[in-house]
Amino acid sequence: MRRKNIIILLWISLGTTLFFFLIFNHEKTFRAFMITMLLSVMYTFVLGVGNGVINEFLNKRFPWSEATRTRAVLSIVSLIIGNFILVYFCNYMNYVVIQKTATAEEFFSPKYGFTNWFMINIALLITAFLHAKGFMEELRKTSRKEVVEQKLIAKSANAQFESLKNQLDPHFLFNSLNVLSSLIDENPGQAQKFTASMSKIYRYVLEQKDKELVTVEDEIEFAKTYCDLLKTRFEDSVDFVFEIRQEDLRRYVVPLSLQLLLENCIKHNFATSSKPLIIRIFSENDTLCIENNLQVREQIKESSGIGLANIVQRYSLLTKKNVFIEKSEDYFKVKLPVLSNKPNIVSIKPENEDLAYERAKKRVKELKSFYGNLTSYCIVIPFLIIINLLTNPKHIWFYFPMFGWGIGVIAHGVSVFAIGKNWEDRKIREILEKQSKR
C-alpha cells in the first residue's frame, strides 16, 4: 500500500476515535481512549486495506476502460461479499476478542444481527463511494490519454499533409521548366505560347495547393489545359481522351492528382508518331481512371517516386478509400477515388483552444461540485443513521433525508455525466466546424 493511503487511513482512524470517544463514550479515561483508538484503527485498516486490495486486483485484471460492464458487475459482487466478510471479522474481533461482551455463539445469534447488518450497510455506503471515485479517476485518465493521442495524431497528419502539398510546387515547376527548355531549342514560337499557358497553369497550382480536395470539374479543366501544353511539345505523338460522366463533375478528388499522373505517363513511356502514347481519362464506378498504353522507356536514372506516392499518401490522410493501380502487358491504369462529400476536417485555431479551455474549466467545476455533494452525502447520512439509532431506535426517520438527498445526488450525477450533455457537445462541434470553414 502507498504511503499516502496509509496516512489517509491514520487520519480517518484518529477522526473516528475522537468522534466516538468524545460523543458516545461515557468513561473518559486513557484506557477507554486507547480501546476506542484500537477499534478505530482495526475497522479503518481492515476495511480500507481489504477494499483497496480488491480494487487493485480488479484494476489489473479488469480495467474500467477495457471491460466496463464486467468490471461494474464484479465490483458490485466483490463489494458486497468482501464487506460482508470484513465487517463480520471486525465485529467478531471487537465484541468477542477485544471487549469480550459476547461469546461466539451469541455473536452469530440474531441478537447481533442488527449490529452486523448496520455496520455492513455503512461499509457498503463508504466503499461504494470509493469505487465510484476510482471509476471516475480511471475514466478521467483514459479520456485525457485519448485526447493527447488524438491531438498528436491530428498534428502528425496535418504536418505530413502539409509536407506532401509542399512537394507539388517545386516538382511541377521543375518539370515545366524542363519542357520549356526543350521547346526553346526546338521551336521558339511554341516556347512563347508554352510560357503563357504555363503561367495560367501555375496560377491554378498556387490557388489549389492549400486545399484538401477540389471538384472533378476543376481538376479536369486544369488537366485539359495541361494536356494542351503536352500536345504543344509532342504534337501527334501523344493523344488524350476525356470520358467523364456528368454526375461526377461535382464530386471531389485530390488537387493536382491528374497533373502528376499525366507527368508519370509521359516520363515512363516513349511516344512517337508511329507509336503514339494514348492517355485516357474516364469515369469508372466511383473512381476517376487514368489509363495509358504501355510503351515503357528505359530509365537512365531511378525515378524519385514523388508523383504516385504523393497521391496515395494524400488520399490515405483524407479517406479510407484506396488508390488502385492496375498493370498488364498492354496498359497501365490508376484509379482515383472520387468523393461525394468533403471530409469534416476541423482545424483547432487559437480562439478555439481558448474556448476548449473555458469548457474544460467549467467541466472541472461541475465535477468538483458533484464530488463535494457525494462526499457530504456519504459523511452526513451515516452520522444521521447513528444519531437516529442511538437516540430513538423505535422511530426510524433517517430514511427521509437518505432517500431525498440520495435522489438529489443521483440527479446531480446524471446531469454531470450523462443526460443533457450530448446535445451541447454536438452543438459546440457544429459551431467549431462552421467557424473552421470561414
What does this structure look like?
This protein is α+β, with helices and mostly antiparallel strands and 438 residues long. The protein folds into three domains: 1-160, no CATH class; 167-337, Histidine kinase-like ATPase, C-terminal domain (Heat Shock Protein 90, 2-Layer Sandwich), CATH 3.30.565.10; 346-438. It is 69% helix and 8% strand. The chain has helices at 3-23, 30-61, 68-98, 104-107, 113-166, 168-186, 188-208, 216-234, 257-268, 306-318, 350-391, 399-417, 422-436, and strands at residues 214-215, 238-243, 252-253, 277-284, 287-293, 324-327, 331-337. Strands 2-4-5-7-6 form a five-stranded mixed sheet, with helices on one face. α5 runs antiparallel to α11. The two termini are 55 Å apart. Residues 345-353 have low confidence and may be disordered. This is Pr2TM family membrane protein.
Give a short synopsis of this structure.
By secondary structure, this protein is of the alpha+beta class. The chain has helices spanning 3-23, 30-61, 68-98, 104-107, 113-166, 168-186, 188-208, 216-234, 257-268, 306-318, 350-391, 399-417, 422-436, and strands spanning 214-215, 238-243, 252-253, 277-284, 287-293, 324-327, 331-337.
